[in-house]
Backbone:
């Protein structure tokens, strides 16, 4: 209940009980209730049963921090001229789906042959049209497989990495990986993300660009208002389709939260939680 307005409620807590598990579609389960309640003006926070069983004190601390943030926001003036971060309705994130390529055989030595560069570039364009932003590693896998070559050959992979730079592609660099974008994509204004799907179309957490992970982190904060950094990283990994207990998945979430802060889309509150910034990035 609201401490100063009897009859009003400051926060709604979403749970993952039997009713949650009985919802068959991902969108209705993950976003449906949050979207409906958010449109009705509710402040929301999601509490997972497993987190409650493992450390209910931490969950309670998180809820108390969130209540402090909400009360503080109510006491701060909000200029009407300052739009809040991404106020549009959330949409169901698409699944990451690789491009469908026709296998065409070439010899190993022809990968670096200028006479075959146009053929290779056409395949690269097909991959980027479907999958960009895509990591160097994934792009190399797709192209070598399309030409019937061994995608595990280290020398071939090194040759491809050099070739991607020579083709004039739009490339961003992170600590462990490079990512390739379509020329019509602006990494600083990119606002989509894709969920991993199990099976042959699986995408490793390290293949997700920090911009894409940042978009997932902002989506989490639209639903949960405020989280401490480690909690936001875990929820970001979960939304991207990964197990938040996996260290590589958590690193993906951390890269996203760091990127969102660097871009000014997420900021730290006075009580140490991360919240959406007041202005658009």
Residues:
């Amino acid at each position: 209940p609201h401490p100063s307005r009897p009859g009003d409620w400051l926060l709604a807590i979403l749970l993952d009980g039997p009713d949650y598990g009985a919802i068959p579609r991902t969108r209705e389960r993950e976003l449906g209730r949050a979207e409906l309640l958010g449109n009705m003006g509710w402040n929301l926070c999601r509490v997972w049963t497993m987190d409650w069983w493992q450390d209910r004190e931490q969950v309670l601390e998180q809820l108390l921090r969130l209540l402090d943030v909400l009360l503080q926001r109510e006491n701060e003036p909000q200029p009407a001229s300052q739009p809040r971060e991404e106020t549009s309705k959330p949409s169901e994130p698409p699944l990451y789906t690789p491009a469908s390529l026709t296998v065409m055989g070439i010899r190993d030595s022809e990968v670096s042959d200028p006479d075959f560069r146009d053929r290779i570039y056409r395949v690269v364009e097909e991959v980027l049209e479907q999958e960009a932003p895509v990591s160097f590693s994934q792009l190399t896998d797709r192209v070598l497989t399309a030409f019937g070559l061994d995608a595990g050959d280290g020398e071939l992979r090194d040759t491809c990495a050099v070739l991607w730079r020579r083709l004039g592609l739009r490339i961003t660099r992170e600590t462990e990986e490079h990512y390739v974008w379509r020329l019509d994509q602006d990494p600083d204004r990119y606002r989509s993300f894709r969920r991993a799907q199990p099976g042959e179309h699986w995408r490793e957490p390290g293949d997700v660009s920090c911009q894409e992970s940042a978009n997932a982190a902002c989506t989490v904060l639209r639903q949960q208002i405020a989280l401490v950094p480690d909690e936001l990283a875990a929820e970001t990994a979960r939304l991207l389709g990964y197990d938040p207990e996996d260290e590589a998945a958590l690193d993906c979430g951390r890269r996203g939260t760091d990127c969102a802060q660097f871009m000014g889309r997420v900021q730290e509150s006075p009580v140490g939680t991360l919240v959406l910034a007041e202005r658009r990035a």
Summary: The chain is about 45% helix and 10% strand. Strands lie at 12-15, 44-47, 134-135, 170-173, 178-181, 226-227, 266-268, 274-276.
